[in-house]
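ok so i was messing around last nite and threw this chain in just to see what happens. nothing serious, just curious
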Amino acid sequence: MITAKQLSEAFISGANNISNNRQKVDALNVFPVPDGDTGTNMSMTMGAAREDLLQNDYSTVGEVAGKAASALLRGARGNSGVITSLLFRGFSKGLKHKTEAGAADLVEALEIGVAAAYKAVMKPTEGTILTVARVAAEKSRAALTDAMTPAELWDLVVEATEEALKHTPEQLPILKKAGVVDAGGQGLVYIFKGMQQVFAGQGMVAGAEGTEAAREESEAATVVNAAGEVEEVDINNPYCTEFLVMRDNPEHDPSGLRAYLESIGDCVVVVDDEEIIKCHVHTAHPGLALEKAATYGMLTKLKIENMIEQHKAQVAAVKQQKPAVVPVDESLTAGFVAIAAGDGVQQLFTDLGVQQIVSGGQTMNPSTEDILHAVEQVPAMDVYVLPNNKNIVMAAEQAAKLARTNGSRRVHVVPTTTIPQGISAMMAYDENADLKANLEAMQAAAEQVQSGSVTFAARDSDYDGHLIREGELLALENGRVAFTGTDLGSVVAKVAKDLLREDSQFVTLLYGAEVTEEQAAAVEESVRTLLPEELELTVAYGGQPVYYFLISVE
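result:
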């Protein structure tokens, strides 16, 4: 039988295993656009459960599974993270009220988890994490015997997930063409294999530097996002080390010192003149850095700071400052939350009446709890949420369910998948209309917008008929890769022209953080020469990261 302690350690081990392998999972993504990658989202989702289980001891498997599921749901990021959380939420229902778990209990829990995940996805796609989980449940049910131990059962689960994963390229042609398996399915295999090691009596999969290091990482490797929440980041080299070297030989080339520091750490800066060498490095071995530097001369102005301790202090301060749920003002008809990145874009939503902005988007998917926290800072009972990204819609829907469960708010998700859709939805809101009419109007407005964007290709890819090279300008039209190019003005102009319809009247260009005013003006000129004169063209600063331009045609 599986005890509470074993199940807790299994979840922690699974979280460590996906964390250790998240970059491998990220690398499986075939979509060439920079995005919130699958491995990172699943790792951060599982990390939420790991943090809770490391800090608490629970007495039954039902309690362990329930608490882990709650943490996973709140920490879920991106579609892959939400699906992972739903699998384990269903899993927890199968173990509810159980003190220990046998093989049959694990099978039933897995089946409930799969059913919950499929139910939550409007149009389930085979060849994904859903398929891998379903096959594992089906094959473990078929192989289950009365004499089977939990460890033996979980061996079958892992074997089935690995076999199902191998077949995902046959189910999704895009995977076969890229020569990879499904990223979400691979992530689930890593999680299940981490759990398998505990069930087999082999102990937990360690974090980057052992289980205790994983505990410190979960507590300390954090930053504060715009919603006032704590987010996990990766700190492999915890000591910020700075010093000056008083050169004993001006001819001694410091390039060797720079290369050495890069071999033992990151964030390396080495600047020199005839008298000194100024050094900065993040490393796990500050003594080695100092020892090597001493071969170049006398050391002075040494400073070594433990970034883990710094982050712990920051986390503690943020948690103390976290505001309580804002009371509802019954006089307010509705409130609004939008997910957006870029100070210009965020200001646009604020000007349109959005009370709370959650910082995030394609490259930074906010968690369910980030969105829930923002909702609870809006003083209205009815709150509209605009995800503005297809990979955030599921997290917003889970936040809505949590808000309804705790009775704090009635949340209505308008499933916008782009920033232009979100802006149009806000403009369609009528304070004199009722809830149903507004939801219909906002959704209709979002669907009528033609959305485009221009970014860079994050990786070489043969995607959807396009041979794409890393670093090329990448044009997307209504979420699909349209073409690549090298000249920003001509690429933006072509996207805008492609999105035109017979009744189009307005074209809006929002330029990103990496585009200067001069570049934006040049692009505006290129677009004006290509568009009909009667169209109204607006160019404004968006400040969004990664995307050079967001294009809206209405």
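not much to say yet. The two ends are 61 Å apart (CA to CA).
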